[in-house]
Amino acid sequence: MKLDLHEILKEQLTDLWRGWEESSIFISGGTGFFGKWLLESHLWLGSELGLKTQVTVLSRNPEAFLKAHPQFKHPSIAFIQGDVRQEVSSTKSFDLVIHAATEASAKLNAEDPMLMMDVILEGTRNILDFAAKNKAKKFLNVSSGAVYGEQPQEINLIPETYQGAPDPTNLTTAYGNGKRTSELFGFIAAKQHSFDCVSARGFAFVGPYLPLDTHFAVGNFIGDSLKEKPIVIKGDGLAQRSYLYGEDLAIWLWTLLLQGATGEAYNLGSDQGVSITELATLVSESAPVKLPIEGPLAKANGDFRHKYLPSIEKARVLGLDVWTPLDLAVEKTYAWHKEQN
Questions:
Q1: pLDDT digits (tens, 9 = 90+) for 329-339
Q2: Which of 50, 123, 269, 279 has the smallest CB count inside 10 Å?
Q3: What would the pLDDT profile of 157-180 be if each residue is shown by its tens digit?
Q4: Between 290 and 308, where is the model more confident?
Q5: Pairwise CA distance, residues 89 & 121, whole Å
Q6: Beta bridge partners of 198
Q7: Contacts of 94 (CB under 8 A, 6+ apart)
Q8: 248 CB neighbour count, 10 Å cutoff
């Protein structure tokens, strides 16, 4: 895949990187969905804008990753073999650190919540210690909108100032509670070691590299459509989500790292909500032949719709926006996955 970042943002991205053109960057979680987009955009920044940044990626199995993704074999990308739950060491210093190692695994969260907490908290502390030892200047902690807990019905778009939290008596909130505490870890460490720290609270995303066989509805729907099977909705189809495309995501991550205000959290995602039923219809229409949609569509209880929608007004102050419409994002994701088969 050739990354085609928005031409209109070249000037903005050039300004963003002024002073960081030859920076050294460390990424944990560089082999996941966020990480692959960071690596794609890193290569694009080098080829299109002439940046001379160097990226080092922490990976449990760099050899297997590069075998599956040879496009990331590049002189500007290096790997350290290791696990975030263990001490990470390097002889070089890093200007910028992005901690994106914990993916939102619904399976792990349900089956082993204690392990989920350990991965988040031990991992965050290790990478923070690593950042301090290696004299980082900026640290981006990739968190989650799960830190807010259940979004109240009366709040259409949840702002960073919302003081709700995941219910600690509900064991399935391990991920959200872990991410909430990891943000505190980050801000404490930043104050102790005098580096800038920003939290990015991710919501939902779509794009190349998105898994098609996990708990992400849009991925499952695209997976069904690629197999030319009926698209199956689980639940009543009334829940509302929003999706930020991968190319937009990459720009957001670099901007929050370099321009986000230290000690602040920013929602990371789209504010354009869509119901699961509407999403299924959109995916169906992106296939060459419109596919049937199946599911136990039930009536909602009263007016309730389960929502997971961020306010992004704070991010817009930094010049960020949702540049890729959802229909185009789904079409591009579908086409990319079809090419891989």
A1: 999 999 999 88
A2: 50
A3: 999 999 999 999 998 899 999 999
A4: 308
A5: 18
A6: 140, 264
A7: 24, 25, 26, 56, 131, 134, 135, 136
A8: 25
Helix (H, G, I), strand (E, B) or coil at 97: strand
The Cα 161–Cα 167 span in angstroms is 18
The region that residue 79 occupies, defined by phi over 0 for left and psi between -120 and 50 for alpha, beta otherwise, is beta
Alpha carbons 242 and 199: distance in angstroms, whole number: 20
pTM score, whole prediction: 0.94
How is residue 91 annotated by DSSP? Answer: S
| Phi (first) and psi of residue 82, to 5 degrees | 170, 180
Which residue is it, tokens 């957001």? 252
H/E run at residue 340: helix 326-340
Nearest to 244 by CA among 200, 288, 213, 285: 200
Contact 101, 28 (CB under 8 A): yes
Say what the alpha-carbon torsion angle 92, 94, 95, 97 is, to the nearest 10 degrees: 180
The token duo for 56 is: 């080092």
Q: pLDDT tens digit string along 306-323?
A: 899 999 999 999 999 999
Cα 122 to Cα 109: distance, rounded to the nearest angstrom: 16
- Taking residues 46-60, report their average pLDDT: 93
Tokens of 142: 């990739």
Residues whose CB is less than 8 angstroms from the CB of residue 197 and which lie 6 or more positions away in sequence, other chains included: 138, 139, 140, 141, 186, 187, 189, 190, 262, 263
Question: What would the two tokens of residue 191 be?
Answer: 């104050």
Share of the chain above pLDDT 70, in %: 92
Residue 20 in tokens: 């960081």
Backbone angles phi and psi of 284, in degrees to 5:
-60, -40
Under 8 Å CB-to-CB from 324, ≥6 apart: which residues? 245, 247, 248, 332
The phi and psi torsions of 305 (rounded to 5 degrees) equal -130, 125
User: Residue 240's beta-bridge partner residues?
Assistant: 275, 307
Amino acid sitting at position 225? S
Asked if 27 and 58 count as a contact pair (C-beta separation under 8 A), the reply is: yes
User: 217-226 and 326-340 are packed helices; what angle lies between their axes, rounded to 10 degrees?
Assistant: 50
CA dist 289 and 117 (Å) reads 43
